[in-house]
Design brief:
Bound molecules: adenosine-5'-diphosphate, zinc ion
Oligomer: single chain
Largest sheet: 9 strands, mixed
Strand content: 15-25%
CATH class of the largest domain: Alpha Beta
Radius of gyration: 22 Å
Length: 433
Amino acid sequence: MIYDIEYETMPREALESIQLRRLQATVSRAYATVPYYRKKFEGAGLKPGDITSLNDLQQLPFTAKQDLRDNYPFGMFAVPMDNVVRIHASSGTTGKPTVVGYTSRDINTWAELMARALAAGGATRGDIIHNAFGYGLFTGGLGVHYGAEKLGASVIPISGGNTKRQVLIMKDFGPTILTSTPSYALHLAEAAEEMGVSFKDLNFRFGIFGAEPWSENMRREIEEKLNITAVDIYGLSEVIGPGVSIECHEAKSGMHIPEDHFIAEIIDPATKEVLPYGETGELVITSITKEAFPVIRYRTRDITSLNAEPCVCGRTMIRMNKISGRTDDMLIIRGVNVFPSQIESVLMEIEGVEPHYQLEVDRKDNLDTLTVRVEVSQGVFSDEVKELQRFGGTIAKEIKELLGISAIVKLAEPKSIARSEGKASRVIDNRNI
Ligand code: ADP
Ligand code: ZN
């Protein structure tokens, strides 16, 4: 179902004229109210009036996570605190959290975008949404919550954690849509199994998962274990929270970006040059409707590419491909660039390997070394030591063959790697850089 037929299927030309008008308004307001933006624009010799076409966006300076940190906590707000009704913060996965604010119109925009997203992911008014994204400063829980209410679905605000209780509620309330991180979805499946509850007997139809990278192979694993169709949802607090893009369940191939609210670009992270559709680089987003916390050319550090081809679902909004990783998660192992999700992808192809793993990176003599700790099934684990060694060797060989990097593989006992209730922490980085 398309929640907002008018906007989501708008012809490009009409969309672009809306985008330009909104971009101009955003730039003017940011210039007038946020000292950071005024200084940045002046430094580049720009005035808001210089933006006369969408192409002029490329003249504007970038905004980086560090800029937000320098203005911690409220320095980037474009409205007085009187008009701010909500404050959130990023999870702080990669350092000091950044703080964001919303006016009541922003909260409404976000709810609309999340209603669109949930509908694209298969939800209708008749659905019961088991929302296991964490509620709190993290945007996941409340983002889904407001969207679900806006859509008119029933939402169970279960949040993350207390996993056994979650399983009982899933059994008793019969939710039809699960929203959580992909890693927590697997944890729920495992807990259910231990409690003798089969997902086959539950009512779930769709799962809407995001907040962390997950590979196509992980999707297959989850779809099979949970007996659902799984779609990917993307977002970041700096931009608005979840709902910055979502896969439609019809295509499950790239996440539609609501371009009437956000303009997306892909840049080469090294040269900062804007790349054409189809090429892979860092996603940069400009918000064009936000009031309290507008972002202009915000460098997300997430790696993806854009796809402007028409989609079977009828939406005209461009799609971004699955995030392969964050620029700051990229490992350089003996000169080869690799993202954790690529390693995940290889692991998930191997029979007997469980979807729980951890990567540890060290640096010795200027070279990165990678240790992969991965759980294996009970069957494999009860094999003889020699068999286990051979199995570890096979995994290392696959990683070498497919990614070209050498890794030390350590097999872990089933259920020995800590489970996450939110974002999984998969990379332990011991490098001092
Ligand atoms: P933090 O950067 O501290 O984790 P957020 O909680 O705002 O802050 O999380 C946003 C980040 O989470 C994104 O920039 C991205 O790296 C990651 N993320 C969110 N959704 C997805 C997704 N569907 N696939 C991959 N990564 C995602
Ligand atoms: Zn689509």
